[in-house]
Specification:
266 residues, alpha/beta, 2 domains, three-stranded antiparallel beta sheet, 9 helices, globular, binds adenosine-5'-triphosphate, binds magnesium ion
């Protein structure tokens, strides 16, 4: 049986009084590829920060690899939603990747082995030829690839990505998703995204976070998830509403596992 990598049980969290997460439960097993979706402000990044031990639940328990997240940070690679501080520093691409080494942030000299590793992870995201460029000179999508390399350099067993593909072009020569699928053969992946096209990749489960967490152990949005994601669009007042109503109609007709209408449509 696959090992349990993440276990979130009965978790509540509030920043300043009002709960942004309530009674959240989630299990992620070894080699799972979980996609986390949900509206802006729903609590996705908050949940991710709890998996990293940056935030602590007001109630409930978060375990990663069977223990508190801070005990296993060396096993977790993280691609944050925002990383302004790294971009503002005059770092080269290679140096940025090296800061992903757990002992790397304040280092001035790196070993040959560490540099070779950085070059290797850069080649995995097809950014090796940019290694001496300044981070500030890269395009948005190139920066996101470098962040992925930075998360990979410490050979993590669990990779957590918070909206890693917002600047990635879908038709470029480099396919971010194929790379993630390859990585998923060796590692567990949790990815927050608003890009529902990713349902067509090899993710195996979906969580929708909007204060509460809904979970599906299949790579499909349930009807309840669709309503949370698109609920405010009214068919009569919003052109998006007609599209959503159509999607929901198809979902309610879904005949279970063998029904592929949804994947085929996006
Ligand atoms: N540091 C903070 N202090 C106070 N409130 C916060 C803080 N960070 C987030 N929040 C609030 O908590 C709620 C959840 O925020 P969170 O960043 O987890 O949402 P999200 O699902 O990641 O949204 P998005 O899709 O926009 O990234 C929001 O209402 C947000 O305004
Ligand atoms: Mg977020």
């Amino acid at each position: 049986m696959n090992e349990e990598i993440v276990s979130v049980s009965g978790v509540y969290f509030s920043y300043n009084g009002d709960f942004v997460l309530e009674n959240v439960n989630l299990k992620v097993k070894e080699k799972d590829f979980l996609m986390i979706v949900g509206p802006n402000g729903g609590g996705k990044t908050t949940l991710v920060k709890m998996l990293l031990g940056i935030l602590k639940p007001a109630k409930g328990e978060v375990k990663v690899f069977g223990t508190s997240p801070e005990n296993v940070l060396d096993k977790i690679g993280y691609v944050p939603q925002k990383m302004n501080n790294v971009n503002d520093m005059p770092l080269t691409v290679l140096e940025c990747v090296l800061t992903g080494l757990k002992s790397g942030f304040f280092k001035i000299r790196y070993t040959k082995n560490e540099i070779k590793k950085a070059e290797y992870v850069l080649s995995r995201v097809e950014m090796d030829k940019f290694k001496d460029k300044k981070m500030s000179e890269l395009s948005g999508g190139q920066v996101q690839r470098v962040y992925l390399a930075r998360a990979l350099i410490s050979s993590p067993e669990l990779l957590i990505l918070d909206e890693p593909t917002s600047n990635i072009d879908p038709y470029g020569s480099f396919c971010f998703f194929t790379t993630l699928e390859e990585i998923n053969r060796e590692k567990t992946i949790i990815m927050v995204t608003h890009n529902l096209n990713l349902l067509a990749t090899k993710i195996n489960s979906v969580a929708c976070v909007n204060k509460y967490l809904l979970y599906n152990d299949k790579p499909e949005l349930t009807k309840e998830m669709m309503e949370i994601m698109y609920g405010i669009h009214d068919e009569h007042y919003c052109s998006m509403g007609a599209y959503v109503a159509e999607e929901i109609k198809h979902l309610t007709k879904c005949e279970g596992e063998n029904c592929c209408h949804y994947k085929g449509r996006i």
